[in-house]
Amino acid sequence: ILGKVAASVKGFLRQDLSFSLCGLKCALCPMQLSGHCPGCGGGPGNQPCAIARCSIQHGNPAYCVQCADFPCEKYKDAGKYDSFLSHQGRMQALAQLKHAGPEEYGKEIQARASILHAMLDRYNDGRHKTLFCLAADLLALDSLCSALHCAEHEPRLQKTDKREKASFMTNLLLEAAARQGVELKLHKRQSSKALPK
Fold it and tell me: Exposure check for the chain: N or C terminus, fewer CB within 10 A?
């Protein structure tokens, strides 16, 4: 599992800083990658969280799926809206973790994070971080591996700039998303100010 250092936020202890209590893949989050968030239960800078407080009240399960009350009212609209990272795959991710176990599922998160870092290092022109993070989170792992392999072995990319490399990788990811019926876009809740009267 990534991030094995224990950390505390107002009594909220976490061993796994790569995958949140509620099913978010912190290791694939643009805020964590930018150093603006330490991850779920990762110390100073971590935001107050109702689910973290709930965990403390329910015996500190490492993941919500380990709680006897899961799924509870807090998961009524799980995946409906995103924040700065996707919430769309939370329930599926928690189900995978429950089935495979934290150690085995941690290996998948590690593989996804490794691919994401490669895409950001070699194919990001400074404008595709959010898209690459969404792809690393939402696409099937074999599709991510395939896209990276294709880009790494494309001869014409050896002599092109980052902008063309970014465009090539973006097209590969969007094609994979279309095949899987996945939209690589954040679904934000409209603010009350933006709603028509």
Answer: C
- At 42, which amino acid appears? G
Q: Token pair for residue 82?
A: 């995103």
Angstrom distance (rounded) from CA 81 to CA 70: 20
CB neighbours of 37 closer than 8 A, spacing ≥ 6?
A: 26, 29, 31, 45, 46, 47
Q: Which of 79, 52, 57 is nearest to 68 (CA)?
A: 57
What predicted TM-score, i.e. pTM, was given to this entire model? 0.82
Residue 193 CA to residue 30 CA, distance in Å, equals: 26
Half-sphere exposure of 95 (CA within 13 A, CB side): 5
pLDDT category at 82 given cuts 50, 70, 90 is low
141-194 per-position pLDDT tens digit: 999 999 999 999 999 888 888 899 999 999 999 999 999 998 888 777 776 454
Query: Minimal CA–CA distance to 131: which of 183, 190, 92?
Result: 183
CA trace torsion 124, 26, 85, 89 (10° rounding): 110
